[in-house]
Amino acid sequence: MSIILSGDRTGRLLKYVPSSQRVYVMAKGLAFPNGVALSKENSFILVAESTTLKILKIALSGSNNIETFAEVPRSPDNIKRNAKGEFWVALNSGRGRINGLGKGREIETTVPWTTDPVAIKFDAEGNVVEVLDGGYGPQLNSVSEVEEHGGSLWIGSAVQPYVAVIKP
Question: Residues 6 or more apart from 61 whose CB is under 8 A from it?
Answer without folding.
Answer: 43
